[in-house]
Amino acid sequence: MSRGEAFCVTCGAPPPLSSNRLCESCFRERNNLSECEETSQAYRCPKCNMHFESGRWGFLEVDDLLQRRLDDSLRIHERAEGIGIATHHERIDDRNVRIHVQIDGTIDGFYFEQNHELIVRTSNMICTTCTRKDGNYYEATMQIRSAGRKLEEEELTELRASLDTLLSTMEPDPMFFITKEGPVVGGWDVTMGSKSLARTWARHMIQRWGGQTKETHTVVGQKDGIDVTRLTVLYRKPGYNLGDVMKWRNRLWMIGAWQKDGPLLIAVDRREKTGASWRDMEKAVVLSRFVDQVEVDILNRDASAAEFMNPRDYKMQTVRLPYDDDGTQISLRLAWVFDEWLAVPKVRNPDEGKPSGGA
User: Cβ distance 286 to 242 under 8 Å?
Assistant: First the structure.
């Protein structure tokens, strides 16, 4: 070895050397590609099977849980490159899983290969959600009512089902649970663990069925000097639906759409629209509900009238065409108003966009 040639600072061996001037033998004695703990602790709620990970509770698949435990237990050399990791899971029992880990890569050009075994142990711990459920905890109450009348059983079923539909489209949240629910005089009450869920559900029902909401807050205690409150949301469903024919201010109107301050009305006799407030509509009378209206085929027509088969007695009958008829329609929607059939203009189907079998 000449005086100008590099050498290992520990044993004096010639190149190749690492970046800190160690030969391969000395470098391997002082460095490991990876280190892994022998055991890793996981926590699972025995009531709902949620896992506690990264400081929060949530539902995890087994593979995701084991990967997170491995990521938390495995440490790789900071200068390692070209890392390859292979794992195999071996189930020991219901609470213990052994993970076989094979890892390879290079550090400063030296190839390393190591094997580890990690045992993931799962212990029971009651989650926050189940603790609160068992203690009848709730943050919000949704009160479902109707304006000026009692909600029918079919309406209550549809309104309640809309919550399940809403939850299926939202990101899961452990606080989205129902503490208690049931019928009350004139409607339905639901107590739940999340204020945001109550508000979101209220907005969902307003978009679908119109109506108004009112929020009230009740102070139930203090935490860290801050008032702890419970929310009550009162939702009042209108006594009418999209497509219903109404008598309002001595004229016939149809409910065309929902707006923030009240419904949008469509005139039955001519092309005209107007907005009305919820208070304005308090004296309106429903003459024909959308669900009671019928679709009939046009058998004959001229410029102003059409013949159809009366669905009540199966006799031919003539009705005046609605103002939006363009001459190409092959069917009419009829409403029974004042003991006679009335052809009504087209409005948006209230069930448009509604999943089959749900609200």
Answer: no
